[in-house]
Amino acid sequence: MTGSGKSLILNHQPVVMRIDIITVLPELLESPLRHSIIKRATDKSLVEIHLHDLREYGFGKHRQVDDYTYGNDAGMVLMIEPVDKCISALKNQRHYDEVIYTSPDGELFDQPMANTMSLHENIIILCGHYKGIDQRIRDCLITKEISIGNYVLTGGELAAAVIVDGIVRLIPGVLSDETSALSDSFQDKLLSPPVYTRPAEYKGMKVPDVLTSGNFKLIDAWKEKQAWERTKKLRPELLNDKEKNDE
Fold this sequence. Notes:
This protein has 8 helices and 11 strands. It has about 250 residues and is α/β, with parallel strands linked by helices. The chain folds into 2 domains: about 5-170, SPOUT methyltransferase, trefoil knot domain (Alpha/beta knot), CATH 3.40.1280.10; about 185-245, Orthogonal Bundle (Trp Operon Repressor, Chain A). The longest helix is centred in the C-terminal third of the chain and has 19 residues, at about 215-235.
């Protein structure tokens, strides 16, 4: 436990990264962050993830953290004071590289962003909820706004889980084969080539001969060609972006 946050690890060994997530529904994040790759990372003390219930900074008997909007718009908005108190409490303990807000109008989360953020030491993620958050939070407390797609979710908890997963898996030592993350789709603005496993033939469907040839030079050339062809067919806009970046 750290402050009012709920820690998902119980050790105190040095870590590579610390992620603090501020939310009104911490229970939504309990399961996604306790299993699979993220659990492996926390078990290895490569990352600490702490959940902070914003209602612990709320007002009155019901720990209110939201209110009606000025201007008579529909929906409730997270108030600035509880958010400011929570972020300030965290900042009093350490420096943060980013204070992130999950928002549908933020910068689209992609692989290059995940690569960059995986090098950070400490980050805060504020989960949006209800109609949104008081604009003053965005103006004064947030350093980066991130969207995971052009659609609206009930809250930012699922977006936070996606961001954490995308970042944590890139930390050295998290994946069993550290090179596997480097061959993921989008790492070079290309989709991954097709992959196969045993048996080499099933119901007349064969694995491409080149993959069983043992000639790694030919295999690498085949993979590169397949990556380009799949990207051109399925996500041609990625090739346009790649060409722009290569200029």
